[in-house]
Design the sequence.
């Protein structure tokens, strides 16, 4: 399994044709206390850059974009009951949704962990 | 002008906030701490203990001169000339057409009127006051003062730990003040102007202190076991729960006081005199003659509605707008303020808010959402 990152602070775990998407620990730290997550509907066909989810902190709403194109096959229902999972476990239990990839070549445009780390350090 | 770090002003306590772990953001032209530990924790801490807020971005002004109260009354609908020494009044700075230019606190210090106005509007307020006030009334902008707010059910207990004395022999200690009273005090030879007031719905104080001495006071306060520093994020969620409007969001120059649900700021004597800016337009709506009104909303579900979201009717036509919205840490549910047509302003009325192409049901609710716990003077 490989983990990719975007400059919008999302992480993408790819296993075969399936990608799991969440926001990074850096992103949750910036957002603060998360009180609501709206995940995409199952079956939604997303192109890279489309609005995919909304994450709401006490103070503000933020969009989460589809980091890559694909069809939504699963959303993390646990976030409905416990949105704070995104704070406590952003890069594990606080995942947002799973996609079946349309075009694996899009992964080439994403960062690996080392590149993302350097990207965050420069912010 | 965009708020980049290049043109942002620094608060007297800017470095202190950074050292305390504050995350700094642009607000009202200043770099200010939005949070330290986290909005939720800071909010709940303030509701249970005492929070220290740096509100030095706000404008502190003195009005001096014979007839200052009457002169100010030409621009505000509050009964300023009847304000006793050491008493504070909340009032509204009105444009000639009655639109709200700012909301402010006015204290009669006995020597002058001391005004606290919003940070984002202070320069415009000063220009308006200077243009409108008669000669002989002097307006001074007290730019070398900081303003700290200590808010929460343990604020009085905390402040009582500092050796703060009245500047008058046998004068009161801060704990003797009731809500909306103020006085001059000394702490370690440092003069403090202390008001029993605030913007959280809790008991507490607002303390005016020289910028040079602000840090030693802030350090003495956060060293107390009851006190933690609190950022702008929690200040906003606390005032929203308390039903207190935020200028520039819940009211502006296009809104009249009755629409803003601020009838209490139109004092009886002044309504009868009818001689303040925009009085004709303002009083034409009094008490329930406005077409729209600012109300509180309890939002169904878990997703907050935010400022800018539309209030819609069953056909989706826009009939109002959300002006503040967020998640209430105390109630653990989303709440909001909105302008709705008067016929929908009754408590318990269901309305629809459209946000991100989704309709969310809300119920009009009495404000405050969380009861005020002011230290009011007992009624005789």
Sequence:
């Amino acid at each position: 399994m490989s983990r990719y990152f975007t400059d919008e602070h999302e992480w993408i775990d790819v296993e075969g044709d399936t990608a799991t998407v969440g926001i990074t620990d850096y992103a949750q730290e910036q957002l603060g206390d998360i009180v609501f997550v709206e995940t995409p509907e199952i079956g939604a066909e997303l192109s890279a850059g489309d609005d995919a989810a909304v994450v709401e902190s006490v103070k503000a709403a933020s969009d989460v974009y589809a980091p890559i194109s694909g069809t939504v096959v699963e959303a993390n229902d646990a976030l409905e009951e416990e949105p704070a999972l995104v704070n406590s476990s952003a890069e594990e239990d606080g995942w947002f949704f799973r996609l079946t990839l349309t075009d694996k070549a899009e992964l080439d445009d994403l960062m690996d962990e080392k590149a993302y780390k350097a990207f965050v350090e420069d912010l | 002008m965009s708020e980049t770090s290049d043109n942002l002003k620094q608060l007297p306590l800017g470095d202190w906030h950074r050292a305390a772990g504050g995350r700094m953001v642009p607000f009202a032209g200043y770099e200010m701490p939005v949070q330290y530990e986290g909005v939720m924790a800071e909010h709940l801490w303030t509701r249970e203990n005492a929070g220290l807020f740096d509100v030095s971005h706000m404008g502190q002004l003195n009005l001096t001169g014979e007839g200052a109260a009457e002169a100010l009354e030409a621009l505000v609908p509050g009964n300023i000339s009847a304000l006793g020494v050491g008493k504070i009044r909340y009032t509204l700075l009105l444009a000639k057409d009655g639109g709200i230019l700012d909301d402010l606190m006015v204290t009669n210090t006995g020597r002058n009127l001391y005004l606290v106005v919003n940070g984002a509007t202070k320069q415009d307020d000063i220009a308006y006051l200077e243009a409108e006030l008669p000669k002989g009334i002097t307006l001074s902008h007290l730019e070398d003062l900081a303003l700290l707010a200590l808010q929460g059910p343990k604020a009085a207990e905390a402040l009582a730990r500092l050796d703060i004395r009245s500047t008058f022999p046998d004068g009161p200690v801060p704990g003797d003040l009731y809500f909306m009273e103020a006085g001059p005090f000394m702490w370690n030879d440092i003069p403090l102007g202390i008001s029993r007031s605030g913007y959280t719905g809790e008991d507490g104080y607002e303390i005016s202190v020289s910028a040079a001495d602000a840090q030693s006071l802030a350090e003495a306060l956060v060293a107390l076991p009851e006190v933690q520093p609190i950022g702008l994020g929690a200040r906003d969620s606390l005032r929203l729960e308390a039903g207190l409007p935020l200028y520039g969001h819940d009211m502006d120059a296009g809104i009249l006081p009755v629409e803003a649900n601020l009838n209490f700021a139109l004092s009886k004597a002044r309504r009868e005199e009818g001689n303040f800016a925009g009085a004709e337009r303002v009083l034409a709506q009094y008490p329930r003659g406005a077409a729209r009104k600012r109300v509180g909303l309890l939002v169904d579900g878990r997703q907050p509605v935010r400022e800018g979201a539309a209030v819609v009717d069953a056909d989706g036509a826009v009939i109002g707008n959300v002006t503040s919205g967020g998640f209430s840490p105390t109630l653990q549910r989303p709440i909001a303020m909105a302008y709705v047509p008067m016929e929908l302003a009754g408590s318990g009325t269901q309305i629809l808010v459209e946000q991100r192409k989704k309709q969310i049901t809300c119920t009009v609710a009495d404000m405050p959402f969380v009861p005020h716990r002011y230290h009011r003077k007992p009624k005789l």
